[in-house]
Amino acid sequence: MATGKINVSVDNIFPLIKKFLYSDHEIFLRELISNATDATLKMKHLTTIGEAKVDYGNPLIEVKIDKEGKKLHIIDQGLGMTEEEVKKYINEVAFSGAEEFLNKYEDSAKDSGIIGHFGLGFYSAFMVANKVEIITKSYKDEPAVHWSCDGSPEFVMEEAQKDTRGTEIILHIADDSTEFLEDGKIKSLLSKYNKFMPIPIKFGMKTETLPKPEGAKKEDPAPTVEVDNIINNPNPAWTKQPADLKSEDYKSFYRELYPMQFEEPLFHIHLNVDYPFNLTGILYFPKLSNDLNQQKDRIQLYQNQVFVTDNVEGIVPEFLTMLRGVIDSPDIPLNVSRSYLQADGAVKKISSYITRKVADKLNSLFKNNREEFEAKWNDIKIVIEYGMLSEDKFFEKADKFALYPTVDDSYFTFEELQEKIKATQTDKDGKTVILYASDKEAQHSYIETAKAKGYEVLLLDSPIIGHLIQKLESSKENISFARVDADHIDKLIQKEETQISKLSDEEKETLKTELEKVIGEKSSYTVQLEAMDSDASPFTITEPEFMRRMKEMQQTGGGGGMFGMGAMPEMYNLIVNTNNELVSEILNTKTAKKKERLINQSLDLAKLSKGLLKGKDLTEFIKRSYEMVK
Ligand code: ADP
Ligand code: MG
């Protein structure tokens, strides 16, 4: 028997380990299973290259709870360790790793920015155990070793009785960590961290039903057997070659990742690159709603099939965090904060690779099956629009396949749209005006008016569309967007020829004065007289585009307190069609009272059409209208 003192400057490192990683105690299991996996894969390698003349067999890793003994066992059939190796790897190397970790992260360990805690390795066992034993037998012809340590730097090492190759780690679970003796807890940890690890992991037994033997009677129960309960899938889809997978395989892997998700993904992207960095993975486009916040954090990050985190912020661009799936890369540094991560060269490359792959996939879907792409557009547009807004590289690519649907469900690319409306919607200054609606129901009458004039009206209803419109306006020449209710159409798309007004200048002057008198001088409505078709609406309310955009930006927080202003003032135009019969009638009405009534009723109708008539005004309007129809 040998005893010794682990060479370390800190007297008792274990309480420190415990303290620093208080929030992440559970990762000890991931670390120990990673070690067991490494040891098994090393064994496989040694037998493959003929270095070890032993039978590799079908090794598995077993996790066993001994509730009474308050012990947790992790047993592998890997390459094991000789006495020399335990001294070297456990007493020296592993410990220096732990110490280095503590020195490095003394200040920042509490910073939630640290992802995972790789590198702490074996000694993370002391976060949950007050004593740890190792019983190990090397594949080399040397006696087995029993090492134990009770949480002080002192350890005991002696010869052990173990005939089979491999390592057993025994954790004597501390009183404050007894949750790790619960089946349910261990099961959930195994499925969180080890679901896709490359070596089968056994946790308990399970009952399997066998087919009934021939000639069995109907009422005979089917025979059952007890078999190892393997909790992981050692060969997940992303580790395979795309050519070996069918579309059904991708779908079933999606169900494996998200068992509670009943909706199928719209399509997938298989990531597979080994130079200049190593990355594999599968990303899925789920059906996305317009809610930006509720759908993040579904991509899982792995390193060599070991789960690391489901917060990939900083590793994939923000707009892609709405996707789902798996990214596996050994090249992503993990012991660093998020802000460092974003500055890391390798991570930047990975991020732009993923962006490019996503853009390429979308582009090929668009090119190869436009119909299907259009059908899916509304479920995926939020990601694409968000990406176009936030990543210039993506904008460049997406500009070719991003779609602009009309209120009648035609889908144009930007180029197609421009081509289509160039002749009809370009004003005399050469600017093409793109009309859009954000709500088909609320803006119905405006949409109809625009369509009657032969204009295309887009339906753009994403929450971020306002920002994207601004980006398009600033990056493309001679175009501008206007919502259908932004200004009077004829005013927006000014042509050389204008309609002749039925009213004389003098009559117009009188009409304007009288309207303003009734509406009130300080009201938020500016009266504008326009000569239009006689059957066009007599009164229309519009809201200047810039005014509405400012208001919207304030609402979405973009311009909160912009220019130090409070709430934006209400500002509307009241467009009066001087060629409409009702307008002439108002002008020619002799009694002042009747005239006032006509104006008020007309204004209310215009407000109603724009959805501005509410509360008391609406109640009174309805009352008045009943009086009139009586
Ligand atoms: P790392 O895994 O990063 O090398 P650890 O602290 O987890 O650091 O482990 C230290 C070393 O101890 C390993 O590199 C390995 O040589 C050895 N080791 C740990 N667990 C096992 C095991 N189950 N079988 C064989 N060797 C092991
Ligand atoms: Mg390790």
From TrEMBL:
InterPro entries: HATPase_C_sf, Heat_shock_protein_90_CS, HSP90_C, Hsp90_fam, Hsp90_N, Ribosomal_Su5_D2-typ_SF
Family: Belongs to the heat shock protein 90 family.
CDD domains: HATPase_Hsp90-like
UniProt cross-references to NCBIfam families, sorted A to Z: PRK05218.1
Keyword ATP-binding assigned: yes
Signal sequence residues: none
Keywords: ATP-binding, Chaperone, Coiled coil, Nucleotide-binding
Protein name, entry field: Molecular chaperone HtpG
Binding site for ATP: E31, N35, D76, M81, S96, G97, T167, R338
A family per Pfam: HSP90
GO MF annotations, alphabetized: ATP binding; ATP hydrolysis activity; ATP-dependent protein folding chaperone; unfolded protein binding
Domain of life: Bacteria
Coiled coil, from the record: 486-513
